[in-house]
Amino acid sequence: MRIIFLAVFLVFTGQPAISLAQTSAADIQRTAEHFLSDWSETMAANGYKTRFEVGSIDRRLALAACESAPSASFAGDPTNSTNPSLLIACSGERPWRMYVPARIEIHGPALVASRALARGERLTPQLVRTETVQINASRRGVITQAAQVSGMMVRRPVSAGTVLTPDLLEAPNAIERGDHVVITARSGSFSVSTRGKALASASVGEQVLVKNLRSERTVKARATRPGHVEIPM
Predict the structure, then answer these.
(1) Any bridge partners for residue 185, and if so which?
(2) CA-to-CA distance for 138 and 147, rounded, in angstroms?
(3) 3-class secondary structure, 66
(4) Which end of the chain has fewer beta carbons closer than 10 Å to its terminal beta carbon, N or C?
(5) What is the pLDDT of residue 17?
(6) CA-to-CA distance for 207 and 193, rounded, in angstroms?
(7) Could you give the CA distance from residue 55 to residue 53 in angstroms, rounded to a whole number?
């Protein structure tokens, strides 16, 4: 009789026998906003201005309660995207993970072309200047230091004011086809050298075919600096 009475009581009061704590959409929203706010302060301390907005979250969402505050992190590099995802995660007896969309802007200093640049033109500090740009507007990244581009060559024509990205530049050839080079065969601290002729062009670190002028043999070597190549012994 007592069991029947309890069941009837619950029907009329609408109260469940057991109430399970949950993590709501509002909780997830607050976690994401707190994370982005802290990130924005860190970026500001490093000279960057940011804007952010957390994307929409289904208000019907109800996840298991977290024993401690959920963690938040970027799922990818925020400097390469205007719409990164945030990973919100809970650990404990009932762990869960979910991704939350976000929209961000990061404004900071980056190098731009001071004037129109032709393909193959070699950069000097006078050909670039620093401007404040939205650095996450392109997935290609930006360059911030003039020393990073000094001596580099432009892959294709660019207009004045164009933001310089790594894919626009290439290292100049350390060796040109037909150059006479020093071929060094190295094994640990021991090495021997001879004269050779480059059969192709290469930048530092690239492989290149060279002709040993003494033996007339063609070998594959690695360009180490202008006029010098190296082969393993």
Answers:
(1) 192, 231
(2) 22
(3) coil
(4) N
(5) 39
(6) 18
(7) 6
**Burial tier of 149 (Cβ tally within 10 Å: 0-12, 13-18, 19+):** buried
- Compute the distance between CA of residue 163 and CA of residue 134 in angstroms, rounded to an integer: 10
Check: CB of residue 127 under 8 Å from CB of residue 114: yes
pLDDT tens track for 182-231: 999 988 888 899 999 999 999 888 999 999 999 999 999 999 988 999 99
The three-class DSSP label of residue 99 is strand
Secondary structure letter of residue 83 according to DSSP: S
3-state secondary structure of 183: strand
- Count of helix runs (H) and strand runs (E) in the chain: 2, 14
Contact between residue 110 and residue 163 where contact means Cβ atoms under 8 Å apart: yes
Tokens (6 digits) for 127: 């050909």
Kindly report, residue by residue over 62-114, the tens digit of the pLDDT: 899 998 899 999 999 999 999 999 999 999 889 999 999 999 999 999 999 99
Q: What phi, psi does 45 have (nearest 5°)?
A: -65, -20
